Amino acid sequence: MAKIIDGKAISNAIKDELKEYVEKKKKEGKTANLAVVQVGNDPASSVYVNNKKKACAYIGIGSSSYELPEDVTQEELLLLIDRLNKDEEITGILVQLPLPAHINEDTVIRKIDPGKDVDGFHPMNVGALSIGEDGFVSCTPQGIIELLKRSDIEISGRECVVIGRSNIVGKPMAMLLLRENGTVTVCHSRTKNLKEVCKRADILVVAIGKPKMIDHEYVKEGAVVIDVGIHRMENGKLCGDVDFDDVCSHCSAITPVPGGVGPMTIAMLMNNCCKNIS
Protein backbone atom coordinates (compact mmCIF):
# COMPACT_ATOMS: atom_id res chain seq x y z
CA MET A 1 0.00 0.00 0.00
CA ALA A 2 1.32 3.42 -0.94
CA LYS A 3 2.30 6.00 1.65
CA ILE A 4 -0.31 8.80 1.64
CA ILE A 5 1.50 12.15 1.62
CA ASP A 6 -0.44 14.33 4.07
CA GLY A 7 -0.28 17.85 2.63
CA LYS A 8 -2.56 19.20 5.33
CA ALA A 9 -0.26 18.08 8.16
CA ILE A 10 2.88 19.29 6.37
CA SER A 11 1.30 22.67 5.53
CA ASN A 12 0.21 23.09 9.16
CA ALA A 13 3.78 22.39 10.31
CA ILE A 14 5.10 25.02 7.89
CA LYS A 15 2.55 27.59 9.06
CA ASP A 16 3.51 26.92 12.67
CA GLU A 17 7.18 27.51 11.78
CA LEU A 18 6.24 30.75 10.01
CA LYS A 19 4.11 31.86 12.96
CA GLU A 20 7.12 31.46 15.25
CA TYR A 21 9.31 33.37 12.76
CA VAL A 22 6.77 36.22 12.52
CA GLU A 23 6.54 36.49 16.31
CA LYS A 24 10.33 36.74 16.51
CA LYS A 25 10.41 39.46 13.83
CA LYS A 26 7.63 41.43 15.54
CA LYS A 27 9.84 41.70 18.62
CA GLU A 28 12.38 43.40 16.33
CA GLY A 29 9.66 45.78 15.12
CA LYS A 30 9.39 44.10 11.71
CA THR A 31 6.25 42.85 9.98
CA ALA A 32 4.60 42.09 6.62
CA ASN A 33 1.30 43.03 4.99
CA LEU A 34 -0.38 41.23 2.09
CA ALA A 35 -2.78 43.05 -0.25
CA VAL A 36 -5.29 40.69 -1.87
CA VAL A 37 -7.18 42.02 -4.90
CA GLN A 38 -10.30 40.21 -6.11
CA VAL A 39 -12.33 41.22 -9.16
CA GLY A 40 -15.95 40.03 -9.14
CA ASN A 41 -17.46 37.50 -6.74
CA ASP A 42 -16.67 34.11 -8.26
CA PRO A 43 -17.52 31.62 -5.46
CA ALA A 44 -14.32 29.56 -5.86
CA SER A 45 -12.15 32.71 -5.88
CA SER A 46 -13.95 33.97 -2.77
CA VAL A 47 -13.14 30.71 -0.95
CA TYR A 48 -9.45 30.96 -1.94
CA VAL A 49 -9.25 34.61 -0.90
CA ASN A 50 -10.88 33.84 2.45
CA ASN A 51 -8.43 30.98 3.07
CA LYS A 52 -5.51 33.32 2.35
CA LYS A 53 -6.85 35.88 4.84
CA LYS A 54 -7.23 33.16 7.48
CA ALA A 55 -3.66 31.98 6.88
CA CYS A 56 -2.34 35.55 7.26
CA ALA A 57 -4.24 35.92 10.54
CA TYR A 58 -2.91 32.58 11.79
CA ILE A 59 0.78 33.30 11.18
CA GLY A 60 0.38 36.90 12.37
CA ILE A 61 0.88 39.08 9.30
CA GLY A 62 -1.44 41.82 8.11
CA SER A 63 -3.81 41.45 5.18
CA SER A 64 -5.81 44.03 3.26
CA SER A 65 -8.65 43.07 0.95
CA TYR A 66 -9.62 44.99 -2.21
CA GLU A 67 -12.87 43.67 -3.68
CA LEU A 68 -13.62 45.22 -7.05
CA PRO A 69 -16.80 44.84 -9.13
CA GLU A 70 -16.88 42.47 -12.11
CA ASP A 71 -17.13 45.43 -14.52
CA VAL A 72 -14.11 47.33 -13.18
CA THR A 73 -11.95 48.61 -16.04
CA GLN A 74 -8.44 47.37 -16.63
CA GLU A 75 -7.18 50.92 -16.16
CA GLU A 76 -8.82 51.16 -12.72
CA LEU A 77 -7.27 47.84 -11.67
CA LEU A 78 -3.82 48.92 -12.87
CA LEU A 79 -4.15 52.21 -10.96
CA LEU A 80 -4.89 50.26 -7.76
CA ILE A 81 -1.86 48.02 -8.30
CA ASP A 82 0.30 51.08 -8.92
CA ARG A 83 -0.90 52.54 -5.62
CA LEU A 84 -0.13 49.29 -3.79
CA ASN A 85 3.32 49.12 -5.43
CA LYS A 86 4.11 52.54 -3.97
CA ASP A 87 2.65 51.84 -0.52
CA GLU A 88 5.58 51.01 1.76
CA GLU A 89 3.26 49.34 4.28
CA ILE A 90 2.30 46.71 1.68
CA THR A 91 5.01 44.07 1.31
CA GLY A 92 3.12 41.59 -0.90
CA ILE A 93 0.50 41.92 -3.65
CA LEU A 94 -1.74 39.12 -4.89
CA VAL A 95 -4.33 39.52 -7.66
CA GLN A 96 -6.72 36.56 -7.52
CA LEU A 97 -6.99 34.76 -10.87
CA PRO A 98 -8.83 34.20 -13.12
CA LEU A 99 -9.81 37.75 -14.09
CA PRO A 100 -12.85 38.70 -16.20
CA ALA A 101 -12.40 38.34 -19.97
CA HIS A 102 -12.14 42.10 -20.58
CA ILE A 103 -8.96 42.33 -18.44
CA ASN A 104 -5.60 41.13 -19.77
CA GLU A 105 -4.06 38.92 -17.08
CA ASP A 106 -0.54 39.23 -18.47
CA THR A 107 -0.71 43.05 -18.36
CA VAL A 108 -1.92 42.92 -14.75
CA ILE A 109 0.80 40.46 -13.66
CA ARG A 110 3.51 42.58 -15.27
CA LYS A 111 2.21 45.68 -13.44
CA ILE A 112 2.90 44.16 -10.00
CA ASP A 113 6.27 45.13 -8.51
CA PRO A 114 8.41 41.94 -8.87
CA GLY A 115 9.62 42.54 -5.31
CA LYS A 116 6.03 42.28 -4.05
CA ASP A 117 4.90 39.52 -6.45
CA VAL A 118 4.29 36.81 -3.82
CA ASP A 119 2.52 34.60 -6.41
CA GLY A 120 5.80 34.38 -8.35
CA PHE A 121 4.11 35.02 -11.72
CA HIS A 122 5.98 38.14 -12.87
CA PRO A 123 8.36 37.45 -15.81
CA MET A 124 11.30 38.77 -13.76
CA ASN A 125 10.67 36.18 -11.04
CA VAL A 126 10.12 33.42 -13.60
CA GLY A 127 13.39 34.44 -15.27
CA ALA A 128 15.23 34.40 -11.95
CA LEU A 129 14.01 30.85 -11.34
CA SER A 130 15.15 29.72 -14.79
CA ILE A 131 18.73 30.90 -14.23
CA GLY A 132 18.93 29.91 -10.57
CA GLU A 133 18.76 33.36 -9.00
CA ASP A 134 16.74 34.40 -5.95
CA GLY A 135 13.17 35.56 -6.46
CA PHE A 136 9.60 34.62 -5.65
CA VAL A 137 8.66 31.13 -6.85
CA SER A 138 5.18 30.03 -7.93
CA CYS A 139 3.50 28.61 -4.81
CA THR A 140 2.13 25.26 -6.02
CA PRO A 141 5.39 23.88 -7.49
CA GLN A 142 7.31 25.23 -4.51
CA GLY A 143 4.85 23.41 -2.24
CA ILE A 144 5.38 20.15 -4.12
CA ILE A 145 9.13 20.36 -3.55
CA GLU A 146 8.45 20.85 0.18
CA LEU A 147 6.07 17.86 0.18
CA LEU A 148 8.77 15.67 -1.34
CA LYS A 149 11.56 16.89 0.94
CA ARG A 150 9.52 16.67 4.14
CA SER A 151 8.37 13.17 3.16
CA ASP A 152 12.04 12.11 2.80
CA ILE A 153 11.66 11.47 -0.93
CA GLU A 154 14.95 11.85 -2.79
CA ILE A 155 14.81 14.01 -5.92
CA SER A 156 18.48 14.13 -6.92
CA GLY A 157 19.29 11.69 -9.71
CA ARG A 158 15.68 10.51 -10.05
CA GLU A 159 13.72 10.38 -13.30
CA CYS A 160 10.99 13.05 -12.97
CA VAL A 161 8.07 13.43 -15.39
CA VAL A 162 5.76 16.46 -15.30
CA ILE A 163 2.47 16.23 -17.20
CA GLY A 164 1.40 19.77 -18.09
CA ARG A 165 3.33 22.83 -19.27
CA SER A 166 1.40 25.76 -17.77
CA ASN A 167 3.25 28.86 -16.63
CA ILE A 168 1.78 28.47 -13.13
CA VAL A 169 2.59 24.79 -12.48
CA GLY A 170 4.20 22.74 -15.23
CA LYS A 171 7.10 24.94 -16.32
CA PRO A 172 8.20 26.17 -12.85
CA MET A 173 7.76 22.60 -11.54
CA ALA A 174 10.23 21.34 -14.13
CA MET A 175 12.74 24.07 -13.26
CA LEU A 176 12.48 23.39 -9.52
CA LEU A 177 13.02 19.65 -10.04
CA LEU A 178 16.06 20.49 -12.17
CA ARG A 179 17.31 22.75 -9.38
CA GLU A 180 17.10 19.71 -7.07
CA ASN A 181 19.14 17.67 -9.59
CA GLY A 182 16.25 15.62 -10.93
CA THR A 183 16.30 14.45 -14.56
CA VAL A 184 13.17 16.05 -15.97
CA THR A 185 10.81 15.35 -18.86
CA VAL A 186 7.82 17.65 -19.51
CA CYS A 187 4.81 16.10 -21.24
CA HIS A 188 1.85 17.87 -22.83
CA SER A 189 -1.04 17.41 -25.26
CA ARG A 190 1.31 16.74 -28.20
CA THR A 191 3.49 14.20 -26.41
CA LYS A 192 3.63 10.87 -28.25
CA ASN A 193 3.49 7.58 -26.32
CA LEU A 194 2.48 9.38 -23.11
CA LYS A 195 2.00 6.17 -21.13
CA GLU A 196 5.47 4.93 -21.99
CA VAL A 197 7.07 8.26 -21.04
CA CYS A 198 5.18 8.41 -17.73
CA LYS A 199 6.16 4.83 -16.85
CA ARG A 200 9.82 5.92 -16.81
CA ALA A 201 9.12 8.26 -13.90
CA ASP A 202 10.39 7.73 -10.38
CA ILE A 203 8.47 10.92 -9.55
CA LEU A 204 5.35 11.68 -11.60
CA VAL A 205 3.76 15.15 -11.22
CA VAL A 206 0.32 15.36 -12.84
CA ALA A 207 -1.15 18.77 -13.73
CA ILE A 208 -3.16 17.96 -16.83
CA GLY A 209 -6.62 19.25 -15.85
CA LYS A 210 -8.61 16.09 -16.68
CA PRO A 211 -10.42 14.19 -13.93
CA LYS A 212 -8.98 10.73 -13.14
CA MET A 213 -7.13 10.57 -16.47
CA ILE A 214 -4.02 8.92 -15.06
CA ASP A 215 -4.55 5.28 -14.10
CA HIS A 216 -2.08 2.53 -13.18
CA GLU A 217 -1.07 2.02 -16.83
CA TYR A 218 0.80 5.36 -16.67
CA VAL A 219 2.62 4.56 -13.42
CA LYS A 220 5.81 2.60 -12.84
CA GLU A 221 5.72 0.18 -9.92
CA GLY A 222 7.04 2.01 -6.85
CA ALA A 223 6.85 5.53 -8.31
CA VAL A 224 5.92 8.64 -6.32
CA VAL A 225 2.76 10.28 -7.71
CA ILE A 226 1.90 13.94 -7.09
CA ASP A 227 -1.62 14.94 -8.16
CA VAL A 228 -2.08 18.69 -8.75
CA GLY A 229 -5.57 18.49 -10.26
CA ILE A 230 -8.82 19.16 -8.43
CA HIS A 231 -12.30 18.58 -9.85
CA ARG A 232 -15.80 18.28 -8.39
CA MET A 233 -17.61 15.17 -9.59
CA GLU A 234 -21.36 14.86 -10.20
CA ASN A 235 -21.81 13.27 -6.76
CA GLY A 236 -20.27 16.38 -5.18
CA LYS A 237 -17.02 14.69 -4.17
CA LEU A 238 -13.60 16.02 -5.17
CA CYS A 239 -11.11 14.11 -7.29
CA GLY A 240 -7.77 14.82 -8.96
CA ASP A 241 -6.19 14.18 -12.34
CA VAL A 242 -5.10 10.77 -11.02
CA ASP A 243 -7.45 7.82 -10.48
CA PHE A 244 -6.36 7.47 -6.84
CA ASP A 245 -7.95 4.08 -6.13
CA ASP A 246 -6.53 2.52 -9.29
CA VAL A 247 -3.01 3.95 -8.90
CA CYS A 248 -2.58 3.59 -5.14
CA SER A 249 -1.49 -0.06 -5.19
CA HIS A 250 1.16 0.60 -7.85
CA CYS A 251 3.08 3.49 -6.30
CA SER A 252 5.26 3.94 -3.20
CA ALA A 253 3.75 7.32 -2.24
CA ILE A 254 0.86 9.46 -3.49
CA THR A 255 -0.89 12.73 -2.68
CA PRO A 256 -4.65 12.55 -2.07
CA VAL A 257 -7.26 14.99 -3.38
CA PRO A 258 -8.25 16.85 -1.33
CA GLY A 259 -5.57 17.18 1.36
CA GLY A 260 -2.44 16.78 -0.75
CA VAL A 261 -1.02 19.58 -2.89
CA GLY A 262 -3.84 22.09 -2.22
CA PRO A 263 -2.96 23.08 1.37
CA MET A 264 0.69 23.50 0.40
CA THR A 265 -0.10 26.30 -2.07
CA ILE A 266 -1.32 28.61 0.70
CA ALA A 267 1.52 27.55 3.02
CA MET A 268 4.04 28.57 0.34
CA LEU A 269 2.19 31.85 -0.26
CA MET A 270 2.65 32.59 3.45
CA ASN A 271 6.31 31.60 3.13
CA ASN A 272 6.72 34.08 0.25
CA CYS A 273 4.99 36.81 2.27
CA CYS A 274 7.45 36.27 5.13
CA LYS A 275 10.44 36.82 2.82
CA ASN A 276 9.63 40.54 2.75
CA ILE A 277 9.37 41.09 6.49
CA SER A 278 11.37 44.23 7.27
Summarize the structure.
This protein has 278 residues and is an alpha/beta fold. It has ten helices and eleven strands.
Give me some keywords for this one.
alpha/beta; three-stranded parallel β-sheet; six-stranded parallel β-sheet; 278 residues; Rossmann fold; 10 helices
Structure in words:
- The protein is an alpha/beta fold.
- It folds into 2 domains: 28-118, Leucine Dehydrogenase, chain A, domain 1 (Rossmann fold, 3-Layer(aba) Sandwich), CATH 3.40.50; 139-262, 3-Layer(aba) Sandwich (Rossmann fold), CATH 3.40.50.720.
- It is 40% helix and 16% strand.
- The chain is built from 10 helices and 11 strands.
- It has helices at 7-27, 43-59, 74-86, 105-111, 123-130, 139-150, 170-179, 194-198, 244-247, 261-275; strands spanning 3-4, 33-39, 62-68, 92-95, 159-163, 183-187, 203-206, 224-227, 231-232, 238-239, 253-254.
- The strands form 3 sheets. Strands 1-11-8-7-5-6 form a 6-stranded parallel sheet. Strands 3-2-4 form a 3-stranded parallel sheet, sandwiched between helices.
- Helix 2 packs across helix 10 (261-275).
- The longest helix is centred in the first third of the chain and has 21 residues, at 7-27.
- The protein is globular, with a radius of gyration of 19 Å.
- The termini are far apart.
- The mean pLDDT is 96.
